[in-house]
Amino acid sequence: MSVQSAPPLTPPASAGGVSASRKRRRSKRFSLLTRRDKLTLAFMVGVPAFIHIFLIWLPTLGSIVLSFTSWNGIGGFEKIKWVGLKNYDVLFNVYPPFWPAVQHNFMWLAAFLLIATPLGMFLAVILDQNIRGSRIYQSVLYMPVVLSLAIVGFIWGYLIYSPGDGFINNVLGVAHTPRQIDWLGTKGLNLAAVLVAASWRHVGYVMVLYLAGLKSVDNTLREAASIDGANARQTFFRVIFPVLAPINVVVLVVTVIESLRAFDIVYVINKGLNGLELLSVMITTNLLGEASLIGFGSSMAVVLLAISIGPIIFYLYRTMREGPE
Description:
Layout: H1 15-31, H2 35-66, E1 69-70, E2 81-82, H3 86-93, H4 98-127, H5 134-142, H6 149-160, H7 167-172, H8 189-215, H9 219-227, H10 232-243, H11 245-260, H12 264-270, H13 279-288, H14 294-321
Helix pairs in contact: 2-14, 4-8, 4-11, 6-8, 6-12, 8-11, 9-10, 11-14, 13-14
């Protein structure tokens, strides 16, 4: 009876060997491309990259440099004066509208996070139950998302909040009377009114994101939770919601960015004055206003960039960490 010898053991490939093997495979695939394919690939990658660098990165770096200068935008580079941190000192310690604008931006963020986002998630959970007319409800609730915030401002300003002809004052019976309420002209009240209008649009956006996430959840998770005796509320918060972690991160980042870049709706209402001051509006006013304070406006833009880049870095970190190994 012959005994067959065992095949020799193959040592596991090292990390360097695996990496070299992958590089060889990529190189082989690239060598199979024709010259036309390579030109097409270079065009498809190069043009967007050039546009991105030219329209985003260069202006961003230019704003950072200009934030340390004093310039009114007239004349060549010789008119630019280096002032160091003076613009930031004036912004933080002297310029009166700055801190109220920062406060309004964070109030915007709080309204989106604590009201609009939970409401959008709640609507997504309801529509995920395949109720009758679900697609009609989805279309109606998503419709505000296709409108710009400027259009939303016009709709709510003229149809809902108008003192004489607005829906609210007519329902309350105070239109065209001494008791009529100027919703957008009263300081303190106008910010809450604008937040309601902006949240009307944001709710639909959040609803669509969560609805897409809920549709991708494996039904076996719900069935297992039901077998274990969990009710609908426990199933969602203990089983479904943790599975939606990637969607939660996307919604968080989108919400933060939307609250910080808010501009259109307050600008069409009263140009961001009388209680509607926001950082984005002040940047535009200083850069494009009569004074044309390019350096000072750039310093505000850098502050807004520094605040906005935090959630973006967090999102990229989570995405790269959870990517394929």
